[in-house]
Each structure stands twice: as structure tokens, then as C-alpha cells.
Write a structure and sequence with these properties.
The complex is a heterodimer of chains A (168) and B (756). Chain A is of the alpha+beta class. In chain A, 33% of the residues lie in helices and 15% in strands. Chain B is 27% helix and 25% strand. The chains are: A alpha+beta (168), B alpha+beta (756). The interface between A and B is large, with 58 and 59 residues.
């Protein structure tokens, strides 16, 4: 069977790649586009390490066929920072030591950024339930939850008019 | 021993800088095992036994070999014959023959998921298609999954080479009971007979998986001249090199292992599963070969920690002083012996003064995946029943559970695990801190219960090698062979910078391959910040001495007249008194001397100290369903001294969460055919974010005088108390003792019904 040519926008760039009909979006991102930030922890949508944003929706890229990305917009961990300027979620993960091994971290950061875009001021409970599809075995989640809530606070601060901002 | 340096002088130790590998890990740039690709690489896949126990009568690989794209097929017959030989691993020891057979079965498949053949092909899809073409002629044998099945009269014997060791007389018939280990002291029978109170109860824990999120993976490349490379994620690149060399009969110096970033290990990555297989495939194919396990393979064929059944009898005088204890337990080793029975026996009572004791541990082999180390291997399984009994003793004596523990806690000078007096241990300080914590006296809500539990872990030292060198501009490079599993690059840089008097950012740490630095034991046993950290400090001190000599030479002063302070040499005597030379100024004059200053230090640090912890847990019970939820959790631990407190807290929180999972939700489910029914994260329920509360931590600092900054290992102790802390809290909430983990809703609900 011949391969399928897929055109999609990935992290703002027009990209084309070839895939087998059975390839997952995760496979294509990792092997065709060399975007290895999304990880395969389970391949069954249970661990969230492969989380990406597809047309604005958070998905497990291991559960999406690569061919389904045709004409769509994909955002991965590699596109979260603005060039060399980290996104506040990334900065807060570092400041709060919200990672140990770091393998689940890209998935958490993509998911947390999506949460804060949907809900700029989440409660601890809302953070915990939003991130319940992302598994971390190292941290016990404590510092991850704190980092996400702190990133939310920073983003809210940044979005206020300059006159209302307090200096940290 | 070195005296710990004056804490008030620390500029960097105890602060919380961003880890140096942080940006790579929050941007997706860090390279873990599935992210590495070698030029010309092909893909391996492993055929696994569909039977829990089967004789392999023959394997026909011809159809697989004929499939276009297939470059190599191997079976157990491709593995060289190896002797049965015990070798040291990251945690405890292993047997080369067993490790080899676990990588690939030869005579028999011993568990559902045991590797029986492997293929390398130009794509993973072709490799997996080829697996389906391999014909294995199995003679299915009866299997044993549980301890009771393995020990039943007439049970199928898994290994005809295993005879129960540790008995007074070596038996002449093989057995599934592979060993007995006894620790005895005094006359516990008499002590219990004379005790005012004796508590006796039986408990069980289930085997649980380490559940690192990164599956096992590696790339191996073999050249015709015998030189080979491996890129892998593991807790020890030297461990991979040495095991692969032993299993395949290669020379250690011919295998260069490059450690990739590791996506969690918890002890489960202190052995090899894939590397010898990938190497044999590469040798046949002449191409680099990658093998990645799927999550299903990780659950079926790697880990877990053994589950243990234990009966405890423990006695006390009327004032709460422990009199004696008798513990008998049996651990389920899986397909090969190696179920942590020694550390289980040694840690059961290691945190208490018990004048008379007999701890008897049995190990049983079963048709399940061979067990591997898991965080404080063996200790949680026996400390859990002991701590539950301590709580029952406190109730029976009408004593506060912390007071009872304080009365019996080990103190410096008491006899330790190795029969030498304990050094600066901090169990009493942990108990006092727990007692003073607001959590301990906070009111409980309806259907809530509180549990308190202690525990210890021996920690370890072992060999580590570090190279520390100064660049021309005065910046500093540290090279170690200790994989960074949770922030050790940061702690190494902090200790080097502290010692050298430099900013944290002036020191950069690299984890080198096995051909670029001397041996370091695996990142395991809570040893890295202690042992490799000590090598870093020693190397920094050697470099300071050399820099002082050079400054003295420049000034024409005696080295004794030069002081090293704040990253610079200061002249104290002679014509140049009051002058200083920074590390950059001295480094810039390397041409005057014999090049740049560097130092290579290898240490073996015997003066590690055990760690102690006390955890407080509140659980809330839903009496309608039996569902338990941890609503508040506090982990108190003697950490020696926290180099980077964030990452120490992280160890306490992560270990607590793993212990909570072990207590409440984690277990394997086997069907009647001996197949694992829940080989995935949906059905094997490790704690998710919404299952847990914040985990409060209290770092008690009783510095280790054997380390320049007072470090004690911190990584493993935190999984020791939670099983009991949760079970005790749950028992109080339910009003009925809950002694068999996991405390799943069905089990708790049944206990509630029996109470009513």
C-alpha cells in the first residue's frame, strides 16, 4: 500500500509528511517531523505524555491517525515557547521544580497551557481533574499543581492593563 | 571523617536554583531512549510467550526470515552459554544466568510475556509482522501464580536447579521455595511469653510495578571487530555495559554505553532486558538496532516489586517498651529468585530497639515476571505489618502512637543493620517533628481516620568517579557517570560551586558515557548525591589545592600563605599580601604551567547513614462504596542536609504518592491461564493527579558527619511508611483492621459488612 501525503500546519509552519494508513499522529510527529518532544508512554491514551493540540483541542496524539491531521492545525511542546522565550507554564515548571525525570513534562505543559487558556483562574481541584489524564510517577503531582496555579496567576497579571499590574 | 562545614558559610547549598537540564526538559529537546536514532538504524521487536509456563520444543523462524525487510531473527539459542554467577547490581545482586534467561527464554517460557525470539527489520511494522510468522512449538505446562499455588503439594516445579537455600540442611529435591533468610537475636519466644501485651496479625501486599512513564528502550550497534555501542536509558550505564558483556561474552572495554535521559526508574532500570537482545540482532544484521518496549510489554515482562505475606507477633511491657518480635514472611519472586528477602528482613524492625527478635523470610518463585528493585526494595512490604502492629499496640496500651514510637526509637549508638553502632540518625527528631506538626492534632471530619507510621532505609555509598576541570576562562566542568534521574546535575553543580566559591552557573555538569569516565555504580540505593557528590567535593578540593599552588608560584609565596576564598586565591604573606587572583586569572595563565588544572577522583564511600521517616495520613471513607481517599498527607524525614530542598521535597512527595498507590489501588490481575489481565495504565491504577492531595513535607536535618555537606540518601525512605500510614488511617476510618493491600473499594466494603 502506498503512503499518504499529509499537509498540516504544525507549530505555525506549513508541513508535509508521508505516513502509513495505520500511523498515529504521534508517530508522524516523532519520526517524520523529528518533533520528539511528545512521548509515547502507553500508546493507548492513558498517560497523556503525547498530548498535543489539534485545531485548538487537547488530544492524545497516539489516538489520532496521522492522516487525520490533513489540513488541520497542530501545536506541540516544541511550539510552546516563543523562540527562546519560555512560556510562563514552562518557567513555572522550572521555578517550582515540577519535574524530576522530565519524561511526562511535555505532555503536562501542553495540557496545562490548554487549561489556562480555557480557565485562566482554576481552583486546585480544577487543575487536578484537568490533569488527571497526564500520569507522573516521580513528583506526586504536588509541585506540578503549584506550578500550574502560579503560571495562571502570572498570566492573569500579564493580561491586566499595565496600570493595574503589581510588581512582583 | 570530615567535619561538616559550618552551615552559616553556605552560599549555595540549601538554595533552590533552576536545574541546568531544565530548559531541555520543558521544551521537548531532551533526548530519552525513544528519541535517539543512529544512522542506518533498523527496528527490533520481541516475540513473547502467550503461556505462563511452557516448554519450548522448537522454534521455526524460516518464514520470518524470508519476509522482505527482515534483517535478523534470533532465539535463545543465539545467546552464549553462561555460568550461574552472582553479580552486584544497582540494588542488591543478580545472577548472570538468570538475567540472560530473563532476556530470552531457552528451555522454557516462565511467564506470560517472557521473550522467546526477536526480529530486526527495516520498519517496526515489518518486525512485528515477522513475529507473527515465527512458529513456536510449546508444550504448555501447569503454572503457579500465587505463593499458595507455588507451595502446594505436587505444585509444578519451575526450576529443577533451584533448591531451598538457607536451610540447616540443603534439600535434595528442587523446590519453588528458593530461599530462607533468618535474622535472630535473643530469645523472642520467652520475651513474648513474658510481655504485658502481645499483638499478632497477618498482612499481605501485592506485587506492584515501578510504573516509570518511559518504557524500556535502547539502540545497540555491533561492529565486526567486536567493538560495540549502546545508547540507553537506565539507572547505570556501567551496569548495562557489564551485564551485556557478561551475558554475551564481550569485553567491557569493547562496549561503550551512552546514557540517554532517563524517564523514571525507581529501581526498575537497574538491570537489562533489551540490550543483549538488540546487540545480538545488530551483530546478525550488521546495522544498529533499536528496541522499544510497549507499555503492555513493560507490565508483562519487567519489574515488579515482590508482594509479601507476613505474620507479625510483637510484644511490649505495660509502659510500652518493646520486648520482642517474631516475624515470618514469604515474598513472591516471580520467575527467578531475587525477591529482596534480605532487605525485607533487615528493615522490618530497623527503626526500633527490640531486644529479642526472629525475622524469617522465605522466597518463592512463580510463573510471573521476574521481580526487580523498586525504591527501598523489600522494606515497605515488612515495615507495613510492623507499623500496623505498633498502632494496635498503642491502642491496646492506651498510648499515643508517636509516644510509643519515641519510647522505642533507635538512637545514635544503638546497634544498626550491620551490627555496628548507628551514627547520627534522626528518627527521634522525625517523631518529635511529626508530633509538633499541626497536622497531627488537626480535627478529623466525619468518616475520616488518621494513621501515623515510621520506617527506615539503609541507603548506600559505593563507587563513584568524577572529573572536575577548569576551562581557560575559569568556568568549571564536572563529568560523572551517574545518570541524573531527578535533579542530580543541579546538586552536583551546587556542591562544586559551594566548594570552589563560585556562582552556581559557573559549573556545568555532564553525564558521560562509559568510555569517557571511570566507573560509577548505578543511580540507586539513594547513593548519588551522597557518593558522587562526595567525589565532586573531593575533586573540587584537589583543584583548589592546585590553583592555590599556582597562585603561590605567581606571587613567589609559600602555598601555605595563600588562602582560597570566594572563587579566588588571596595572598596572606610576603610582598604580595592583600593581593588576589580569581579562578579566571589563574586559569588564563595555564600556559605558564602544565596546562589547565583538573582532577579525577574515584571514591568508595562507606560512611553513608540510614534515613528515617515518619508519615501522617488522613483518609476519608465513603461508607456507601468502600472507596477511600487520602485527604491530607505529611511526610517528615531526616534528610541529613538538603542540597537542593525542592528536589528533596520532590523525592518525599513522589515516594509518598507511590506508597499511597501501593496501599490503595495498585495490583496485578491474573486470569486462570496465568495471563496479566491489566497490562495497561487504564486498568493498573497508579495514582493520578485528582486522586491525591498536596503532600506536605518536613525536612529534618541531622547532618551526616561522613559527608562534606552532611548528605544522607533521601530517595527511597519515603516509600517505606506510606503503606502503613494509609492502612492505619483507613482502619481507623472504617473501625475495622484493614490488613490486606490494596484497600480497593470492594475489599473495604466487604470489611465494613463483616463489621456490621
Amino acid at each position: 500500500m502506498s503512503k499518504i501525503l499529509v499537509s498540516a500546519t504544525v507549530n505555525g509552519d506549513a508541513q508535509q509528511f508521508l505516513c502509513e494508513p495505520g500511523d498515529s499522529l504521534l508517530d508522524a510527529l516523532r519520526t517524520q517531523l523529528q518533533l520528539t518532544g511528545a512521548k509515547e508512554g502507553c500508546g493507548s491514551g492513558d498517560c497523556g505524555a503525547c498530548t498535543v493540540i489539534l485545531d485548538g483541542r487537547m488530544v492524545c496524539s497516539c489516538l489520532v491517525f496521522a492522516a487525520e491531521a490533513e489540513g488541520r492545525i497542530v501545536a506541540t511542546i516544541e511550539g510552546v515557547a516563543d523562540g527562546s522565550v519560555l512560556h510562563p507554564v514552562q518557567t513555572k515548571f522550572l521555578e517550582h521544580a515540577a519535574l524530576q525525570c522530565g519524561f511526562c513534562t511535555p505532555g503536562f505543559i501542553v495540557a496545562a497551557k490548554a487549561l489556562l487558556e480555557h480557565n485562566p483562574d482554576p481552583t486546585e481541584s480544577e487543575v487536578r481533574y484537568w490533569l488527571a489524564g497526564n500520569l507522573c510517577r516521580c513528583t506526586g503531582y504536588d509541585k506540578i499543581v503549584r506550578a500550574v496555579m502560579d503560571a495562571g496567576a502570572q498570566l492573569r497579571q500579564e493580561q491586566r492593563p499595565a496600570s493595574e499590574r503589581t510588581t512582583a | 571523617m570530615n567535619a561538616p562545614e559550618n552551615p552559616s558559610r553556605f552560599r549555595i547549598v540549601g538554595t533552590r536554583p533552576v536545574r541546568p537540564d531544565g530548559i531541555d526538559k520543558v521544551t521537548g529537546k531532551a533526548i530519552y531512549s525513544p528519541d535517539f536514532a543512529a544512522p542506518g538504524m533498523i527496528h527490533g521487536a520481541i516475540l513473547r510467550s502467550p503461556h505462563a509456563h511452557a516448554r519450548i520444543r522448537g522454534i521455526n523462524t524460516r518464514k520470518a526470515e524470508a519476509l522482505p525487510g527482515v534483517k535478523a531473527v534470533i532465539t535463545g539459542r543465539d545467546f552464549p552459554t553462561v555460568e550461574s554467577l552472582e553479580v552486584s547490581l544497582g540494588e542488591g545482586s543478580g545472577n548472570i544466568l538468570h538475567t540472560s534467561r530473563n532476556c530470552m527464554a531457552l528451555e522454557k517460557a516462565l511467564y506470560h510475556g517472557h521473550a522467546v525470539a526477536a526480529v530486526a527489520a527495516t520498519s517496526e511494522a515489518i518486525a512485528r509482522a515477522a513475529l507473527a510468522l515465527i512458529e513456536v512449538d510449546y508444550e504448555v505446562l501447569p503454572h503457579v501464580i500465587t505463593v499458595a499455588e507455588a507451595q502446594a503439594p505436587g505444585a509444578p516445579i519451575i526450576h529443577d536447579t533451584v533448591f531451598t537455600s538457607g536451610l540447616d540442611e540443603t534439600p535434595i529435591t528442587p523446590s519453588n521455595t528458593s530461599s530462607r533468610f533468618v535474622i535472630a537475636d535473643g530469645d523472642p519466644d520467652a520475651a513474648l511469653a513474658a510481655s504485658a501485651v502481645v499483638v499478632e496479625a497477618s498482612f499481605s501486599t501485592q506485587p506492584v510495578h515501578q510504573c516509570y512513564i518511559e518504557p524500556h528502550g535502547c539502540v545497540a550497534s555491533f561492529n565486526a571487530d567486536g567493538q560495540a555501542q549502546i545508547w540507553a536509558s537506565s539507572q547505570g550505564a556501567f551496569m548495562i555495559r557489564d551485564l551485556t558483556a557478561s551475558i554475551l561474552g564481550l569485553r567491557q572495554a569493547d562496549i561503550r554505553v551512552t546514557p540517554l535521559e532517563i524517564g523514571g526508574g525507581f529501581g526498575g532500570k537497574t538491570t537489562v532486558y533489551l540490550e543483549p537482545v538488540a546487540m545480538l540482532l545488530s551483530r546478525k544484521a550488521g546495522r544498529p538496532v533499536r528496541i522499544m518496549m510497549t507499555r503492555d510489554e513493560v507490565f508483562r515482562a519487567s519489574g515488579p516489586a515482590p508482594g509479601t505475606e507476613a505474620t507479625v507477633r510483637i510484644g511490649a511491657a505495660a509502659d510500652g517498651t518493646l520486648t520482642g518480635a517474631i516475624i515470618e514472611f514469604t515474598s513472591r519472586g516471580g520467575a527467578f529468585p531475587g525477591a529482596d528477602v534480605h532487605p525485607s528482613a533487615m528493615h522490618a524492625l530497623a527503626h526500633y530497639r527490640v531486644p529479642a527478635r526472629r525475622v524469617t523470610g522465605w522466597e518463592v518463585v512463580t510463573n510471573t515476571a521476574s521481580t526487580a528493585a523498586y525504591r527501598a526494595p523489600g522494606a515497605p512490604q515488612t515495615v507495613f505489618p510492623v507499623e500496623c502492629c505498633m498502632d494496635e499496640l498503642a491502642t491496646r496500651l492506651g498510648m499515643d502512637p508517636i509516644e510509643l514510637r519515641l519510647k522505642n526509637a533507635v538512637r545514635p549508638g544503638d546497634k544498626g543493620l550491620n551490627h555496628l553502632p548507628l551514627g547520627a540518625v534522626g528518627f527521634v527528631e522525625c517523631l518529635e517533628a511529626a508530633k509538633a506538626h499541626p497536622h497531627y492534632t488537626a480535627p478529623l471530619g466525619p468518616n475520616q481516620g488518621r494513621g501515623i507510621a515510621g520506617g527506615s532505609w539503609a541507603n548506600y555509598g559505593g563507587p563513584s568517579t568524577v572529573e572536575l576541570s577548569v576551562a581557560d576562562d575559569g568556568s568549571v566542568l564536572v563529568v560523572t557517570g551517574s545518570p541524573d534521574i531527578g535533579g542530580s546535575r543541579a546538586s552536583m553543580a551546587m556542591m562544586a560551586a559551594e566548594t570552589l566559591g563560585l556562582p552556581y552557573e559557573a559549573v556545568r555538569v555532564t553525564i558521560a558515557d562509559t568510555s569517557s569516565i571511570g566507573v560509577s555504580m548505578a543511580t540507586a540505593g539513594s547513593r548519588t548525591t551522597f557518593a558522587t557528590g562526595r567525589a565532586v567535593v573531593d575533586a573540587a578540593k584537589e583543584v583548589i589545592a592546585a590553583l592555590r599552588d599556582r597562585a603561590a608560584n605567581i606571587w613567589g609565596a609559600a602555598p601555605s600563605g595563600v588562602e582560597w576564598r570566594d572563587g579566588a586565591a588571596h595572598c596572606l604573606t610576603g610582598d604580595n599580601a592583600g593581593q588576589s587572583l580569581s579562578i579566571a586569572q589563574i586559569a588564563g595563565r595555564a600556559g605558564q604551567f602544565s596546562g589547565q588544572v583538573s582532577s579525577v577522583v574515584s571514591v568508595t564511600s562507606p560512611d553513608y547513614l540510614p534515613g528515617f521517616a515518619v508519615h501522617i495520613c488522613d483518609t476519608e471513607l465513603d461508607p456507601e462504596t468502600g472507596h477511600l481517599r487520602v485527604v491530607r498527607y505529611t511526610a517528615v524525614q531526616d534528610v541529613g542536609r538538603a542540597i537542593h530542598p525542592d528536589y528533596v521535597e520532590g523525592q518525599l512527595q513522589g515516594g509518598s504518592a507511590q506508597g499511597i498507590g501501593w496501599a490503595l489501588s495498585e495490583a496485578y490481575s491474573f486470569n486462570s491461564a496465568g495471563e496479566v489481565e491489566n497490562a495497561g495504565f487504564l486498568d493498573y491504577r497508579m495514582p493520578v493527579c485528582s486522586d491525591l492531595p498536596m503532600i506536605d513535607t518536613v525536612m529534618v536535618e541531622v547532618p551526616n558527619p561522613g559527608h562534606p555537606y552532611g548528605v544522607k540518601g533521601v530517595g527511597e525512605v519515603p516509600i517505606v511508611p506510606p503503606l502503613a500510614a494509609v492502612a492505619i488511617a483507613a482502619s481507623h476510618a472504617a473501625g475495622v483492621p484493614l490488613r490486606h493491600l490494596p484497600l480497593s473499594p470492594d475489599k473495604v466494603y466487604a470489611a465494613l459488612q463483616s463489621r456490621n
